[in-house]
Design goal:
mainly beta; 433 residues; five-stranded antiparallel β-sheet
């Protein structure tokens, strides 16, 4: 074997020996000796006594942060932000839900061609729309923000306006004058009403002696006639979203209850009466599930109207019960909680003994009489207060001369006239609870 080949073969072992390093023979003796020797006490080292680190450290001067001042400044900023949030939230008007119980607000009415609002507790009244024009028939929106009214123009026509509840931001919603249907019976005194969200005004109009319905945008962006294929009156939006409209429809031969779907533009029949019967006053329960109305006719003599409740699909039509001696009842008005109806119940075939009654909407009993002599001639109009504690009404027919409405305290069974005289129908502002 050559020297070169021998080196190549032995090179790994040589490198291994070099990597381990030399190991002197005396190392074992040193380790054995030191293991038997006691170590030097730590206190004998000077650096244990002297702060050597502090001696060699160079002083660095860093200014102290004013933490107290910073904390106070941050607290002040937080308080200012909280105050700004409270101010912003407080400036936003809280609105009630369109249906259900609410807090009592103002009462709107017309007098002398001007529009007023009044506090039902103090009796203080304020003109919110006044001037030389003749303004009539105020009605509040479901959320209490807006009020609609009619401004009379020539030819027996009028224009509908919408304003805020304080009379500001007056907006014309029917630039083309319209003829409003006569308010003589049933709930035709609700000649126009707001949609649940207040964006639309539903108006009972006339065209060439033909009763029609008109829809107007409350921002003044336009109005159009709603074609339902029938003579239509006493229309109202269905709770809770107003996607359907209930109305009395007639074809010249008979009349009945109908509903039009505003999205599908389809009309369906709820209840159709025989030709010798008539009906009036349809209104929705607050949940939109039922309809109350009163009907009369047939071969009976004198007044014989009776209040009915029917499901929205036309099923389950039933007449509310009457006690012995009662002859007729009408003017059914739903309470805001949907559990009761206010009706006028008569104990004669005329108007000489008409009592206000609160009756369960399910008809389980005759109800409770809460007032006497609530109607002396056809036809009255009634509305529950938003909190359902009272009923506001016009107890007589509309007259040119102003009359005092009455307020019935349901629990106390007491009816008192309000301190102002009006020539309009009841409308009570809803406020957030």
């Amino acid at each position: 074997m050559t020297t070169e080949r021998r080196l190549t073969a032995e090179l790994p072992d040589i490198l291994g020996d070099l990597a381990m390093g030399s190991y002197p023979e005396y190392i074992d003796d040193v380790l054995a000796t030191t293991a038997r020797t006691r170590q030097r006490p730590a206190w004998t080292f000077p650096e244990r006594w002297l702060p050597m680190v502090d001696i060699v450290r160079q002083p660095a001067f860093v200014p102290r942060l004013p933490w107290r001042g910073i904390s106070l400044a941050m607290l002040l900023i937080a308080l200012l932000l909280a105050a700004a949030v409270v101010l912003f939230v407080g400036s936003q008007q809280r609105l009630p839900a369109p249906y259900g119980l609410a807090r009592n607000g103002l009462i709107a009415f017309e007098a002398g061609g001007d529009i007023y609002t009044a506090d039902a507790v103090t009796g203080a009244a304020t003109a919110i729309v006044s001037g030389p024009a003749e303004d009539v028939g105020p009605r509040f929106s479901r959320d209490g923000r807006l009020v609609a009214f009619e401004r009379k123009v020539t030819g027996g026509k009028g224009q509908l306006y919408v304003a805020r509840s304080d009379g500001s931001h007056l907006t014309l919603v029917t630039p083309e004058p319209v003829t409003i249907q006569a308010a003589t019976s049933g709930r035709t005194w609700e000649k126009y009403q707001f949609s649940p969200d207040g964006s639309v005004l539903l108006i009972a109009t006339m065209r060439s002696a033909y009763s029609t319905l008109t829809i107007a945008q409350t921002d003044g962006s336009g109005a159009r006639e709603l074609d339902v294929g029938l003579r239509a009156s006493e229309a109202s939006f269905r709770p809770p979203n107003g996607a359907e409209i209930l109305f009395i429809g007639g074809d010249g031969m008979s009349r009945g209850l109908y509903i039009v779907d505003l999205n599908k533009h389809k009309v369906r029949e709820v209840r159709k009466l025989e030709s010798d019967y008539d009906l009036a006053g349809p209104s929705w329960s607050p949940d939109g599930a039922k309809i109350a109305y009163w009907s009369w006719g047939g071969r009976g003599e004198g007044l014989n109207s009776k209040t009915h409740v029917i499901a929205a699909d036309g099923t389950g039509d039933r007449e509310l019960p009457s006690p012995p001696g009662a002859v007729w009842n009408a003017h059914a008005t739903w309470s805001n909680d949907g559990t009761r109806l206010f009706i006028a119940r008569a104990y004669s075939g005329g108007f000489d003994d008409v009592r206000g009654v609160v009756i369960p909407a399910d008809g389980r009993n005759f109800g409770v009489e809460v007032a006497q002599d609530v109607e002396t001639e056809c036809c009255a109009a009634w509305q529950w207060s938003p909190d359902d504690s009272k009923v506001l009404g016009r107890s007589t027919a509309l007259h040119v001369a102003p009359r005092q409405p009455i307020v019935i305290d349901v629990a106390a069974k007491q009816a008192l006239p309000v301190p102002w005289a009006v020539t309009s129908d009841p409308t009570w502002q809803r406020l957030a609870p």
